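Sanity check record (used in CI):
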Amino acid sequence: MSLPLVPLPASVTPAKGVAFTLTDAVFITGDADAAGVLHRLVLTRTGLHLTAAPGTAEPDSAAIDVAVDGDGPPESYRLSVDHRRISIRGADSAGLFYGVQTLGQLITRSSDGWVIPGVDIDDAPRFAYRGVMLDVARHFHDVATVTAYLERAASLKFNVLHLHLSDDQGWRLALTRRPELTARAAASAVGGGAGGFFTADDYRAIIAHAAANHMTVVPEFDMPGHTHAVGLAYPEVAAPPAVDGWDAAGGPAPVAGEAYTGMGVGFSSLRIGAPETDAFVDDVLTELAELTPGPYLHFGGDEAHGTPAEDFAAFVARTSRVIADLGKTPIAWHEAGAAADLAPGTIGQYWGLVSPTDGADERARAFVARGGRVILSPADAVYLDMKPTADAPLGLTWANGPTSLERAYSWEPGEVVSGISEDDILGVEAPLWTETVRDLDDIDALAFPRIAAAAEAAWSAATGSADNRTWESFRERVGALGPLWTTLGIRFPASPEVAWTV
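Expected output for beta-N-acetylhexosaminidase:
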């Protein structure tokens, strides 16, 4: 039986017949931050209060020692478990944090109490960027919900939280330069639900909590499409809704100046080339850059069907240069690759299918040709808002759905976009759009257990290149995480594709 480790570590060597027994008498020594994370994790999982030791534990005492030693690639760690000692060594603080998360997955209840099996693990990530995205625009999610979700993601070694902060239904971040955005454009949501927005202090709190969990926040203001809400606040920068031939997706038709509560996309656009629009874009991106310590700003660029192609190319080229001039790296959805004059180094986020259609792969390759890299988010594999089964009460099905756990697992990042190398792939991101998602329970119901499949695609070796990097092994390993997820308060559905440990 495989050890219950997700994502699969680079190297795992079990020590048969060896186990470390967890009791209140166990000491934690070493790095204070990592020791605090471990203490809280063990307490939640087992109810045990481990003892913090100010220095080195006595030679004959049971102890867990956690430390940064600077050895190995970024975010890597080594974990060793024998019958009296556990050692976790990280190349940096992030690696040490991930080593602690791995140890948490190994905690098992036995007839003799809480135990950790003997093992030696040497682990490092495949990709530098391992992201989850949460859409807070279709339905608003408050700080508590966002931080709970990022904690869940960090436990699976994700290191990026992408926040989709604006869309046709609402604008979700208060800006002093453009106060009308939240005064007039934040009170609506899909289905007519209540909206909401983050204050600057709320946003800073999310960033701080993410940093404590070794995650970088990537904010997104989606432009030039997905901007109907902008017109509620600043009508001079918004074009009239382009509804000819538009698919309403079963919802109401958009009306200029009125809040939009449907799910249809592609009808809205900014007024490209207008001085008022350029000033608006400059204002919102400048303030977003000031609020955001991380290296990336995402400016959307997807589904701009209401924007003429020439105007679209001019807009995304200018906007990418604005972001670069602010000292940030621009990210855009793959459609922006159609523009010939993107700022060099712009990152493209591919959201097409595992088998690309309609030239999506060509547009993704264009980012690489201009010195950028690609984030892979194939919609029919890692869009967590797709229904997991046909009868699931939440989610959508447009991306060849439903998306089973096996399909979420059985794809290989290096094989999606032909003509790009492993080095051209910045990483993998699993988006969660929230047309049908209203609270944390809904998030859990759609994200789990498929988020674990995305975590393995982002962290672990290529599919089939290592023992246990297979669907058969994954479904066994993820099933054994059921007790841990339950004690962490995650309301995951018991997927019938998995034999869950009770």
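The longest strand covers residues 11-22. If this sentence no longer matches the regenerated tokens, the check is flagged for review.
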